[in-house]
């Protein structure tokens, strides 16, 4: 539990700092990627992006020559918990706004981290529209039956 608290504090400090390694801009369906190379034993970095509407964000990370963790932040609030560098995660139900991936780790002198992310807008399935129309048809049929 103590190590988790330390990791969360490090990720939060990274996300809250004024130094940002990169900005994806508006995140969308084409996957955006970032590569960070670090020649120090400890590293922390962040990548910001924005969303224009309700979306699900998919992320995938790889680390070479080290270990660490990452999290998604909206301001100073962590969304979805802490994830291990080298793993994939998805974050659903994100509204329009600016978000930051904060990551940190320890390396063996030379480390590289890749972060790839894309956002898929929340669009109703065609079956949802079919169910809506069927429900409206049933309500209209019941109303018509009551009138006659």
What would you say this structure looks like, in words?
The chain is α+β, with helices and mostly antiparallel strands. 25% of the residues lie in helices and 55% in strands. 26% of the residues are buried. Mean pLDDT is 77; it is low at 7-21.
CATH class: Mainly Beta
Tell me the structural class.
Answer: alpha+beta
Give the fraction of residues assigned to helices: 25-40%
Shape descriptor reads rod-shaped
Largest sheet: 7 strands, mixed
The tally of structural domains comes to 1
> From the 3D coordinates, which CATH architecture would you assign?
Sandwich
DSSP summary, beta strand count: 7
Work out the strand percent: over 45%
What separation lies between the terminal Cα atoms?
68 Å
Task: Give the SSE map.
Elements: H1 2-16, E1 22-26, E2 32-38, E3 42-51, E4 55-74, E5 77-84, E6 88-94, E7 97-121, H2 126-147
Parallel strand pairs: 1-3
Antiparallel strand pairs: 2-7, 3-7, 4-5, 4-6, 4-7
């Amino acid at each position: 539990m103590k190590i988790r608290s330390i990791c969360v504090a490090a990720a939060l400090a990274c996300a809250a700092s004024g130094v940002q390694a990169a900005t994806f801009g508006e995140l969308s369906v084409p996957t955006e990627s970032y590569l960070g190379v670090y020649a120090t034993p400890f590293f922390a970095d962040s990548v910001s992006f924005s969303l224009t509407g309700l979306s699900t964000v998919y992320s995938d990370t790889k680390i070479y020559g080290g270990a660490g963790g990452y999290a998604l932040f909206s301001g100073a609030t962590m969304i979805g918990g802490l994830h291990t560098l080298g793993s994939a995660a998805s974050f659903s139900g994100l509204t329009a706004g600016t978000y930051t991936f904060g990551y940190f780790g320890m390396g063996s002198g030379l480390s590289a981290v890749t972060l790839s992310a894309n956002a898929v807008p929340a669009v109703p399935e065609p079956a949802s529209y079919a169910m809506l129309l069927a429900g409206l048809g049933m309500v209209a049929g019941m109303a018509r039956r009551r009138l006659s």
